[in-house]
Specification:
With 244 residues, the chain is α+β, with helices and mostly antiparallel strands. The strands form five sheets. The protein has a four-stranded mixed β-sheet with strand order 1-4-5-11, covered by helices on one side. The protein has a three-stranded antiparallel β-sheet with strand order 6-10-7, covered by helices on one side. Strands 2-3 form a two-stranded antiparallel sheet. α1 runs parallel beside α4. The N terminus is likely disordered.
Length: 244
């Protein structure tokens, strides 16, 4: 997975990017070298509205602040892969910065594991580990996506999670207070333990989530999908990527 920022100039949300990918099959011996990167242009007639959440409109590409350096408004952003990561990139580029991109995938949107996973979400199961903050942030972002895209559109729901212990040697239906609430379990159930309540457990349909994120990016800023493979990068003289 990589995000390619090909050219820096006046932002054109409705630009058709597909023609730029016909050079992807050049052999390395005939590799095309792009000219030196352009500097950000001054004010022009095509005002761009980047960062809808900030509400700022200007006559030149905005500088979008990141933790390390400002992000310039590129008109060509290529994402290799149409899975959950690629669609998340496309979704947040559109939602936060009003930037379109082109996703390249051999099949389409979420054709593999990203569309077939269980979609189980747990807020605190990584607490105490190096990814604690990442998992908690991911849990919160899924809730925000459900609110923005529509919980019914992505089958987002809060639920409880229970671990059930079974023993092949035992027999009979679950009985007693200890097994209350897991009568649905198979035979030979020994006991259960609550792993999480609705405050910390959720589930989403991964295929529908990817499709909803992509639909938003496509309709709101005109992002494109190209069916194909990224077979080669086109390099500048300094080996930075200028195209695929």
């Amino acid at each position: 997975m990589f995000v390619h920022e090909a050219e820096m100039h006046e932002f054109q949300p409705q630009q058709n990017h597909n023609k730029n990918f016909k050079q992807a099959t050049y052999p390395r011996s005939q590799q095309r070298h792009a000219p030196a990167p352009l500097t950000a242009p001054g004010p022009g007639p095509a005002a761009s509205q980047i960062g809808a959440e900030t509400g700022k409109t200007t006559g030149r590409p905005n500088l979008l602040s990141t933790a390390s350096k400002p992000m310039v408004a590129y008109s060509k952003i290529v994402v290799a892969g149409g899975g959950v990561i690629g669609n998340s990139i496309s979704y947040y580029l559109a939602k936060r910065y009003s930037l379109p991109c082109t996703i390249i995938d051999p099949v389409g949107i979420a054709p593999a594991a990203s569309g077939k996973a269980g979609g189980f979400l747990a807020q605190d199961w990584s607490d105490g580990s190096p990814i604690q903050d990442l998992q908690r942030r991911s849990f919160d972002l899924h809730a925000e996506q459900a609110e923005h895209l529509g919980a019914d559109q992505i089958d987002y729901r809060r639920l409880e999670c229970i671990a059930v212990a079974c023993d092949d040697a035992a027999g009979g239906k679950p009985k007693g207070k200890q097994l209350e609430g897991v009568e649905w379990a198979d035979l030979n159930t020994l006991g259960s333990r609550v792993l999480g309540k609705t405050e910390t457990i959720a589930q989403v349909h991964p295929k529908k989530l990817c499709a909803a994120m992509w639909t938003y990016s496509q309709k709101s800023v005109g992002s494109k999908l190209v069916i194909g493979k990224v077979v080669e990068a086109i390099l500048n003289d300094d080996n930075s990527i200028s195209g695929v």
